[in-house]
Amino acid sequence: MSLPDITKHVGELACQKDSYLKSIVTKVVRCEKVVPAATNGKKKKGAAPESEKKDAWEVELLDTVIFPEGGGQLHDTGSLTPTIPDATAVHVSNCQRRLLSCIHTTSAPLDPSTEVRVNVDWPRRFDNMQQHSGQHLVSAVLDLPPYQLETLSWGMNATEAYVEIGRKLSEEELQALEDRCNELIREDLKVVVHTSNRVDDQGNLPADYDPEKGTVRVVCIGDLDRNPCCGTHVSKTSQLNAISILYTTPSRGLNTKINFVVGDRVRRTAKQSVGRLRKLGNKLSSQIDEITDKVDKLMDDKKDTEKREKTWRQLAARFEAEKARAALASHGKAFIHASEGGIPHLSEIAAEIGEARDTGVVLLVCGDDTNENDGGPVMVTGEESKVKELAAEVQKALPDVRGGGKARWQGKVGKWWPGDVEKLRKLVEGDAHDDNHHEAGDQTQKRLDKPSKSKMQPRFCIFHDAIVPFTLDP
């Protein structure tokens, strides 16, 4: 059987004339290798490395059952197989409209005039049809009383779809919307596609689609809705099975997006959601209906823990600051190392040291160098000229440190290596760390032994998760 050599334009494709057609035989009109776009040396976020990128080709056919992305609907995928014995199928990963042409992205080249069988990935296609027809139904109901809300935009992805409207709906309005859509699904309304020459049907066409050379298609749902659309649709509302509104999200200005699923996605979403809830319930040792209360209690416990942690961190900061002040008083410089806490903890220690650092210099380090670990912050604070000098020594000792500042220099170590912290300690304390440590300890003990003017000295002691005040009688 000979095939006509007239290329069908978008609007007259086989997939648009019959959404349920899964396969046709046609010919290759054009095939060109895809030339990667110039990146100017900049790598796009999430892009595959150059070594992993595969060659691709753009193929144009006389006709196709693979729908090109458009009208908010995702593109189809499928395959092209030459009609010769033992031919290998060529995968179609993408399909896009270019003006009036339909362009297939393939994994291998095909010679022009080659006869091929085009097969569409039917599960993906039917899912797209359900979501798209479902969107028409949701928008049609929103357009009528009591809502009378225009659909400003819509979209879909692999898991859900949305329509954007001009205001937020109440929970009662959302439930009524879902109920009405499902009533119309059960009414089994016919979904019919017509072609149109009416000027008012051309208002929503893409700017690069020429209606005089192309074809304007209008989708009708019974007497309920009439809307220009290039997509593929179910033949009656009963094939949507069900619509479930999942949640809403705020959008531009006062606009709201209503997120929903249609058809087989309702079943899959319900199954996945219950599965996740059961797993979460098992982790929390609770039934599904108890999860919310259990999480509320965990959040309250977390807040209490954070409060206690803040108190402990403040006490630790005061203790470290006291050691630093003693070192500054005797040597004019001090070294502080904290294994955790980050910049907030180092800043808290620096604040506690106070004016004692104004004529000296303090090096504060946070991280664990006992093994090869992720890096951490480094801070140098004090008199500006001394800060500049010590910061330069820090960068010389650890070349990968990056930072800046004057009276307070702040940097970050990309990765801690064993011995790094000791290198920084020696910049301040030299090789006499042990002697200095004992001397600072003796000074601290003398201050503890020195009688106070008050009769009692308040102290704090930390026992696991409690902070207990007590006093020492001098």
What is the mean predicted local confidence, pLDDT?
87
- Please tell me what the overall shape is: elongated
CATH evolutionary superfamily of the largest domain: Threonyl-trna Synthetase, Chain A, domain 2
Strand content: 25-35%
Q: Which strands sit side by side, in order, in the main sheet?
A: 1-2-5-4-3-6
Low-confidence stretches: 434-474
* Count of discrete domains: 3
Helix count equals 9
CATH class (first level) name of the largest domain: Alpha Beta
CA gyration radius, whole angstroms: 35 Å
Share of helical residues: 25-40%
Number of strands: 22
Largest sheet: 6 strands, antiparallel, barrel
Q: Would you tell me which CATH topology of the largest domain applies?
A: Threonyl-tRNA Synthetase, Chain A, domain 2
CATH-scheme architecture of the largest domain: 2-Layer Sandwich
Q: Kindly, what is the distance between the CA atoms of the first and last residues, rounded to a whole number of angstroms?
A: 110 Å
Structural class: alpha+beta
Folded structure, characterized:
The model is unreliable at 434-474 (pLDDT under 50). The protein is elongated. The chain has 474 residues and is of the alpha+beta class. A hairpin with a 2-residue loop joins strand 21 (457-463) and strand 22. It has three domains: 14-35 and 54-120, Elongation Factor Tu (Ef-tu), domain 3 (Beta Barrel); 126-282, Threonyl-tRNA Synthetase, Chain A, domain 2, CATH 3.30.980.10; 316-448, Diaminopimelate Epimerase, Chain A, domain 1 (Roll). Helix 2 (122-142) packs across helix 3. It is 33% helix and 27% strand. It contains nine helices and 22 strands. The protein has a six-stranded antiparallel β-barrel. Strands 14-15-17-19-18 form a five-stranded mixed beta sheet, with helices on both faces. Strands 7-8-13-12 form a four-stranded antiparallel beta sheet. Pfam families: tRNA_SAD. Its cofactor is Zn(2+).
